[in-house]
Amino acid sequence: MNILIVGSGGREHTFAYKLAQSDLCSKLFVAPGNAGTASIATNLDISVTDFDKIKEVVLAENIEMLVVGPEVPLVAGITDFFKKDAQLAHVKVIGPSAEGAQLEGSKEYAKEFLMRYDIPTAAYESFTAETVEKGHAFLETLKPPYVLKADGLAAGKGVLILEDLAEAKGELTDMLTNEKFGEASQKVVIEEFLDGIELSVFVLTDGKNYITLPTAKDYKRIGEGDTGLNTGGMGAISPVPFANDEFMAKIENKVIKPTVAGLAKENIDYKGFIFIGLIKVGNEPKVIEYNVRMGDPETEAVLPRVKNDLVDLFVHVGNQTLDQVSLDLDPRTAVTVMTVAGGYPEAYNKGDEIKGIETIEDSIVFQAGTTLKDGNVVTNGGRVLTITSFGNDFKEALATSYKNVKKIQFKDMYYRTDLGFDL
Ligand code: AMP
Ligand code: GLY
């Protein structure tokens, strides 16, 4: 069948890499894609939210499966757009309906969902411009650090963790009355701070059945030792060594099962990935967030370990027959090391030539912010490309990625050299 992937990052390059390996995949398209996806699929110059253009190409190219990478088109209702259109309704869409996507699109919606199904999470209250004084009073009842979350999508920037009460009050006011994060912070969730180590689990569900994909740990800060500004993610390790069978059973029973059952109970059309961000507090998992897609760069470490045919997995999702699938995993550890343009996550340069990709043999290069210019691969985003390697443990896998990253060159390239430092 012909397949269209929506998105342009390392996650979408990884999807393309896996889907292209399947005998079930005829023509593969990516909108808009990057220089990496251009080498294995046909890139289409279409924005991820231009549903009308996406419809045109789906009809013109007889596309039967749509794989949605990022959250923005999901929250904007791309799945519903396909379902409601008689010409598109037959297309298998991997990604939840707009209602399901609210698990990521609204922190308050997610917290209410977690509470309804008694899924462990941080205590919270939410506030608006009308209740900002109550928000200040609530902050006074909490111990530092204070966790403030913009309700809506804020490209990973909407969470503030503050040590000082006065500063927390000021930021709350700024978010609610000055729209610090635009519309996204018209509502703010204030949460109890959870102290522990983070990990993520990835679930693929057809709305009734699910499979649990490997765990991963992402490194979000720009600086060594988890310091400095937040980024989209500087690297990932899969599996997470401390997520042993006993802890995974807790996650399964206390988090995954009630999540999938809750979606089904509420008749929410959800065929796609659920990315559950967790903190291990003592020996207990607590949910810090839901995302309604795969993580980036977690995908670049998780998916290469999945030996199943990805098209076949997605067909089962579309047909609600995931109960017939058993997951075949590479037991080795996979890691991915992200290279970024100097200055990222603040201002950075684009258009710099990237050299050395073709010299790498024992790792997989997944491209993110890249494009083709006069036949050369050049930088086109903050996160440029990521290097995935396997090993018997994360140290061995990292050694291979760190050896190979030295073969890549572009102006002001930066990467973290301390992934796994906390494990
Ligand atoms: P989120 O966008 O909700 O994942 O939050 C971004 C980051 O903030 C998370 O990856 C955590 O590192 C941190 N964080 C979020 N909520 C909490 C919390 N309740 N306690 C401690 N850290 C948190
Ligand atoms: N790497 C974090 C995310 O994809 O949200």
General description of the model:
The chain is α+β, with helices and mostly antiparallel strands. The chain is 30% helix and 28% strand. It has 13 helices and 22 strands. Strands 10, 11, 14, 15, 16, 17, 18, 21 and 22 form a 9-stranded antiparallel sheet that branches. Strands 3-2-1-4-5 form a 5-stranded parallel sheet, with helices on both faces. Strand 1 (2-7), helix 1 and strand 2 (28-32) form a beta-alpha-beta unit. The longest helix has 21 residues, at 245-265. The mean pLDDT is 95. Bound molecules: adenosine monophosphate and glycine (GLY). Glycine binds next to loops.
Question: What's this, in brief?
Answer:
By secondary structure, the protein is an alpha+beta fold. The chain has helices spanning 10-20, 35-38, 51-60, 71-75, 78-84, 98-105, 107-116, 132-141, 165-177, 245-265, 298-302, 310-319, 394-405; strands at 2-7, 28-32, 42-43, 63-68, 92-94, 124-128, 146-150, 159-162, 187-191, 197-205, 210-218, 221-223, 227-230, 235-238, 272-281, 284-291, 333-341, 364-367, 370-373, 376-379, 383-391, 413-414.
Topology:
Blueprint (H helix, E strand, L loop, with lengths): L1 E6 L2 H11 L7 E5 L2 H4 L3 E2 L7 H10 L2 E6 L2 H5 L2 H7 L7 E3 L3 H8 L1 H10 L7 E5 L3 H10 L4 E5 L8 E4 L2 H13 L9 E5 L5 E9 L4 E9 L2 E3 L3 E4 L4 E4 L6 H21 L6 E10 L2 E8 L6 H5 L7 H10 L13 E9 L22 E4 L2 E4 L2 E4 L3 E9 L2 H12 L7 E2 L9
Parallel strand pairs: 1-2, 1-4, 2-3, 4-5
Antiparallel strand pairs: 6-9, 7-8, 7-9, 10-11, 10-15, 11-14, 12-13, 14-17, 15-16, 17-21, 17-22, 18-21, 19-20
Helix pairs in contact: 6-7, 8-9
The structure holds adenosine monophosphate (AMP) and glycine.
